[in-house]
Amino acid sequence: MSGSLARESKDGVRIEVEVKVRASRSAVLGVREQRLGVALAAPPVDGAANEALRRVLAEHFELPRQSVQIVGGEKSRRKLVELRGVSLAQALARLGQPPP
Fold first, then answer.
1. Contact, 70 vs 84, CB < 8 A?
2. Percent of the chain having pLDDT more than 90?
3. CA nearest 53: which of 71, 70, 31, 34?
4. How many CA atoms lie within 13 A of 93 on its CB side?
5. What 8-state DSSP symbol labels residue 93?
6. 6-94 belongs to which homologous superfamily?
7. Closest CA to 53 of 31, 32, 29
8. CA triplet 64, 28, 22: central angle to 5 degrees?
9. What residue spans define the domains of the chain?
10. Cα–Cα distances in angstroms (integers) from residue 67 to residues 22, 45, 60, in the given order
11. Could you tell me what percent of the chain has a pLDDT over 70?
12. What are phi and psi of 55, to 5 degrees?
């Protein structure tokens, strides 16, 4: 998926994400180098950061938390996240990116 922030998948959209853990607050930072930056207040211990990532992205994209799945990089700062039930155009619009 290199060179592309997001692409359609069978169930929705997959987005490349880079997380910064132990931040002062959790927030979507914006798009940098074809990845969505997300700051997480949670530490990377016992899945806390991954759960915080799912919660932050669900809120940002206005989806139920169960519609946000980490499908790659679960133990890495760089992750591949699937947003289920959203179109590529909708996801890009929420990120302030032009449509494909």
1. no
2. 86
3. 70
4. 6
5. H
6. YggU-like (3.30.1200.10)
7. 29
8. 105
9. 6-94
10. 24, 22, 12
11. 97
12. -65, -45
